[in-house]
Amino acid sequence: MDWFPLPASFVPETLLLHVTRDDVIRVLGVTWNFVRSSVLAPFLNICVILCLTMSIMLFIERVYMGVVILCVKLFSRKPEKRYKFETIAVDVEKGHSNYPMVLVQIPMYNEREVYKLSIGAACGLSWPSDRVIIQVLDDSTDPIIKDLVELECQKWANKGVNIKYEIRDNRNGYKAGALKQGLRHSYVEECDLVAILDADFQPDSDFLEKTVPYFAHNPEIGLVQARWKFVNANECILTRVQEMSLNYHFRVEQEVGSSTYAFFGFNGTAGVWRLSALNEAGGWNDRTTVEDMDLAIRASLKGWKFVYVGDIKVKNELPSTFKAFRFQQHRWSCGPANLFKKMVMEIIRNERVNLWKKLYVIYSFFFVRKIVAHLSTFFFYCIIIPATVFVPEVVIPKWGLVYIPSIISILNAIETPRSFYLVFNWILFENVMSMHRTKGTFIGLLDAGRVNEWVVTEKLGDALLKSKDPSTQATKESFKKSPMTRFRERIYPLELWVGLYIFICASYDLAFGKYWYFLYLFGQAIAFFITGFGYIGTKIPN
């Protein structure tokens, strides 16, 4: 058969004559329906199943901890009843020699606003003056602040306080490096215990009187952890929602670990360590940004027991600027994931702790609370649920969409009764922050670029009050920047892009959906927008 080439214009002209706009729309519709039913629907169904599985794991964990806390309260299983506790008294013959020698370490870095508070509180502790050493570990890079801190230490030394001002010529290891270097001084050899207080922490004068007796009468105890009390919780909505999350952490998570397996993560401050436990565990290690949790895991694997005493409260400051809070949450999510990757096999191979404790540490402490909690929150509530409005074939069961998250939220909120009315705000903001926590978790698991990024959490002290005074230098400096520059500094593009995605999904659901997801999606989109434009947290002059 002979083939005769068609004229070049034959096919296009024919198509143009017979293909209409409606035909194009019809073809696109058929193609979309095929892709939606054959590709997107199965993929989203798999994602929904994975997210629901993680939600169930998180739900079971929360209910379990709720039951444990209920039993602790019903049976009054307070630490002083589980362990021997007797106040240390002065021996008439021996004097103060029966008091353990305590080293109080205060690591700080350019803490202009709070250094006086922490040093003053540490120097005011009720403990025999010949049985305590206050050690200020100053890594400040600002020479003016270093001079101020040194003068403050000298002031207390002139009052008879045994206080040491220590500096080093680098910041290797950040906080862990400073604490490790501080323990190398010769005068530390005579100490039995070491109390650690961050620069914004202000313990009551009886802090040592309430914590040290646990060590004196229970040789198996390696750590006593106190609870945090937030002095600026009422400052703004950002500090209020942080208070809700941290109250649950201390009143439930820490209490459950202490009551069941005598293990929990050291909070890095407001705690007292037995030096022999710290040394046996290998001392401070700067391989991750959660050196406190790292030390706690290693000490627990050596058989040491931890005690959480919720009745002892140490005043401290919550980060009230969103920038500071973001950096803190990156460190608190990236560090545990990275530590889990580095220690999981060491935990499995350990022979000094029993199987149940290993399962608790690996599954409950690390996997569910440090990884699953972040991934399920972000992917389910910020990605998958919004995406399903375009794919009606995907149906999310009501128990996973409403009942489980509602129960989890209520269990969290009841630990801060005064803020219960803020529970919806807390949910939306936690979903926003889950994006950063998820990113940090992946960076930690993959050992990616920012895995060891350490940014000291900014403390404001009374800086906010000073910033409102128009005569202060800080206020004057803030006006040197142009309005556009100040606007750009408060913009967070990632939050805005996710907020736009959710807003588009909400709008589509409002127009074409049948499950009323838009009621939640619009609220979540607004939360992302508010955060993305920097309208959350305290605003202070730069």
TrEMBL record:
Pfam families noted in UniProt: Glyco_trans_2_3
Protein's membrane topology: Multi-pass membrane protein
Annotated Gene3D superfamilies: Spore Coat Polysaccharide Biosynthesis Protein SpsA, Chain A (3.90.550.10)
Record's keyword terms, sorted: Cell wall biogenesis/degradation, Glycosyltransferase, Golgi apparatus, Membrane, Transferase, Transmembrane, Transmembrane helix
GO biological process: cell wall organization
Residue intervals of the Glycosyltransferase 2-like domain: 194-388
Entry's localization field: Golgi apparatus membrane
Segments traversing the membrane: 43-75, 371-391, 403-429, 491-511, 517-536
Secretion signal, residue range per the UniProt entry: none
Any one cellular-component term (Gene Ontology): Golgi membrane
Entry's family note: Belongs to the glycosyltransferase 2 family. Plant cellulose synthase-like A subfamily.
Protein name, per record: glucomannan 4-beta-mannosyltransferase
Lineage of source species: Eukaryota, Viridiplantae, Streptophyta, Embryophyta, Tracheophyta
